[in-house]
Amino acid sequence: MDPKLINDCVHCGFCLPTCPTYVLWGEEMDSPRGRIHLMKQHVEGTPVTPEMAGHFDACLGCMACVTACPSGVRYDRLIELTRVEVERRHERDPRERAVRGIVFSLFPYPRRLRLTRPVTPLARRMAGYVGRADASLGAMAALAPRVERRERLPRVVRARGERRAVVGMLLGCVQREFFPQVNAATARVLSMEGCDVVIPPRQGCCGALSVHAGREEQARRLARRTVRTFERAGVSTVVVNSAGCGSSMKEYGELLGEEPGFQVRDLSEFLAELGPVAERHPLPLTVAYHDACHLAHAQGVRSQPRELLAGIPGLEVREIPDAAICCGSAGTYNIFRPEAARDLGDRKAKAVGSTGAELLVSANPGCTMQIAAAMRRAGDDIRVAHTAEVLDASLRGVRL
After folding, report:
1. Residue 31 CB neighbours (<10 A)
2. What is the rounded distance in angstroms from the CA atom of residue 216 to the CA atom of residue 114?
3. What is the architecture, at CATH level 2, of domain 285-396?
4. 120, 166, 217, 231: least surrounded by Cβ within 10 Å?
């Protein structure tokens, strides 16, 4: 941990109302400034105790505090470094180690993740019988969506009309296996806006989940593989449609010690920079747009998706109350901390329901699963779509 980064915090408290765990529990040590105090204690010689590790683990890493901080504290960097230290120094109990072992041997490996899909309905039914001790595995089963069909994409999707750009496209892990229709819509939208879309085969995990969990060695290995994959593809820009993946890939320089040979852009960010040329057909819908934390707070991408949606004739965008508060997904948080994640999910579902929107639009697969599950619990099974799917429907003139 970097003492200079720690000392940047003046403990003003502007972060408190934006922190999901402080909002839930009102505990100082479960706020950003409280955790920074614990970091300072550790740097000054206090060992990582189970209680200290618990406060760090309880952080969602949503980065809302980074947005709120008037002093520019790099809490994002601090919590990532701290989690590496926790993984090195803290001995987790056997059950925790087992659950984490399962998650990190599955999620970063799309082929393994694919094998879980046929048994997900059974696991979901069994989740109610396995008891509290296996709440994490039950939460994992309950979140997984049903996948109707896989959509295979070619290695290159050619631009329709005049070619304006050539971009690489990240397929992701959860996005690829549980939301293949989002990747297909992303490729079509880019193509219709004049892009050749290069989709390298045998893509692996970008390393985002490992970074957020302090698994530094695994994160670097996966990041290096991703960099090699897209550098070999010869693209100068990689477009990402998953907020968590995009956030981590933009920080590859910090993780690996050198910048990759390409720039990373979120889909909405790239399309806003490119400018629209394809005709938008009307979509008479009211939509609630959800700000994924790693898009709004970590990447600073807020206006671009709203502008893209507002450019669709007949579509009305409604804002969600308390939009800055995390939905509780946070990568693997809703698996490792299912009770807190459920409380945050229920808060978000209530806020979404208050908009009266017909469709919830999200730009991150974890958020999509988390909020959809919370809406089902509330008895309001709202339709959910990615920004790419809404744009795709409008550009093709089809019903969503």
Report:
1. 25
2. 25
3. 3-Layer(aba) Sandwich (3.40)
4. 217
CA distances from 302 to 179, 199, 290, 297, 299 (A): 22, 26, 10, 9, 9
Tokens of 46: 């206090």
For residues 222 and 210, is the Cβ–Cβ distance under 8 A?
A: yes
Strands 263-266 and 285-289: unpaired
Taking only the tens place, the pLDDT of each residue in 111-129 is 777 766 554 554 444 444 4
CATH architecture label of 3-89: Orthogonal Bundle (1.10)
- CA distances from residue 239 to 43, 65, 246, 258, 364 in whole angstroms, order as listed: 38, 26, 8, 20, 14
What is the rounded distance in angstroms from the CA atom of residue 192 to the CA atom of residue 277? 8
Residues 129, 131, 137, 138, CA torsion sign? positive
pLDDT digits (tens, 9 = 90+) for 51-78: 999 999 999 999 999 999 999 999 999 9
pLDDT digits (tens, 9 = 90+) for 213-250: 999 999 999 999 999 999 999 999 999 999 999 999 99
